[in-house]
Amino acid sequence: MSHSFFNVNQSPDAKIPTVFLPGWGFNGRILRLLKPSPSWISPQTFLDPDTIEEEVLHLIAQCNIQKIRIIGWSMGAMLGLDFAAKYPEKIDSLILVSCRSGWPEHEIKQLQVEFGQDQENFLKGFYRKCFLGDKQSYSNFCKTLEPLYLAAADENVKRLQQGLEYLGKFKISSTVPDIPLRLIHGKQDIISPVTEMAALQGSDVEVIENSGHAVFLAESCSLQNELRKEEIRKKFSRAADSYDSYAIVQTEVAERLAAKLPQPPDPAVVKTILEIGCGTGNFTSMLADKFPAAKITAIDFSREMIAKASQKLDKKNIAFICTEGEEYLKEAAARSFDLVVSNGSLQWFSDHDQALKNIVRILSPGGAFLCSIFGPDSLKKLGLGLKVLFGYPGNVAADAFPDINTLQHSLNAYFAQGTVEQELIEKQYESVHDLLIHIKKTGTGGWHQHGSPALTPARLKQLDHWFAETYGSCKVSYQIHFLQAEK
Questions:
Q1: What CATH fold (topology level) applies to the domain 231-486?
Q2: Which residues, in sequence order, are CB contacts of 406 under 8 Å at separation 6+?
Q3: DSSP 3-state assignment of 233?
Q4: Torsion-angle region of residue 463: left (phi > 0), alpha (psi -120 to 50) or beta?
Q5: 3 state DSSP class of 423
Q6: In Å, how far are 100, 190, 194, 355 from 199, measured between CA atoms?
Q7: Pick from 364, 378, 247, 232: which is nearest to 309 by CA?
Q8: What pLDDT, in 10s, does the model give residues 257-302?
Q9: pLDDT score, position 12
Q10: Residues 98, 73: contact at Cβ < 8 Å?
Q11: Domain boundaries, the chain
């Protein structure tokens, strides 16, 4: 076998395994530049166009995989498209990143000549072009991966030459496989210009404005959003056993939200309820008490949280489903719920505006929406302390949460009427360490692009001293937005 793969044994949560096929001159190690690092199956070597098809088939058979999702980048996208066209029954979906419709013959000949004349300088120049517009990723690449790639290239000259030959022969097939397709392209890509992006009928197209060839590294890329959600899901799953013991703030928010539930003359008129992000089922229980005749669909993206909720609330009228919230809203039938609710969950969504638009779509005529969302000023003091003392650039996880004006704008755009009310919950902790334990044990640490500073005992002591001098003790506030709207 000429390829071996990273991450062959994926977690059981990966219903459809992802196979990542890298571009020419790269292998699966390029994924190390992504934070958090994905668990995608990827080749440890440069791609061999002559054997990759056979070896992906072998991988699928060996691991007893029914279907895979392929993410192909550049040459890997072309190979992925070829594989999907030949074996559509084995493909769940296909994501083509920086996929060019084809390479002019004269360009390929020129590349072959330049590669043959000075292999190392050619590769260095090629890598630099791949990262144009992303200085940080290029710097990380040069420090960590480029030396490995240059060394490996000496032993893989023939394979790289075969790759160039494949690029010269590739043509978009007139027969596009009948599977979900997504094209992702950087608008500043000079290797695969966006004007020459592969055109495939029925595909979703995502063009990232300020990104080049390595567009999957762009923070605004949908693949990055996917990885962030996966990191958040893992934290919630790890916290399932401890959540109820430490979710003091979340429980208080749930009680305040329950008090705002609509008061119909007859609760029986609310027949169907969707709860987004049910967690361990605490708010679900309040819903069941308030609307005993309603059929409740409670969703969460953590299997562990769903398991806890199912054990706690074994009722016939409650259906617990493990699924990702934004995807569920996108796929749910129109006018299927009389009431949609969510307690402290929607702040983790990638596209809040689209989520609210989808909620309107799935509400019955006259249906209601009620939710609580943690705001961007939550734990602001902790973020300030990290910045002042250690230069940490982020405002903890809440930095990416939507503000009140953004939420109100979306409500005004999609609902017949809607309001956003802000409330603050203040809590005092024995120490910063105690606060961080509560965050960890509830899984609400979120995801940080820049990484968290290492909070050693000495640094925790500094933070305690800073809180004591600045605020008298470790006092923090949680900003809560309560959304109430009607269709």
A1: Rossmann fold (3.40.50)
A2: 352, 353
A3: helix
A4: alpha
A5: strand
A6: 9, 18, 11, 28
A7: 247
A8: 999 998 877 777 899 999 999 999 999 999 999 999 999 999 999 9
A9: 43
A10: yes
A11: 5-220, 231-486
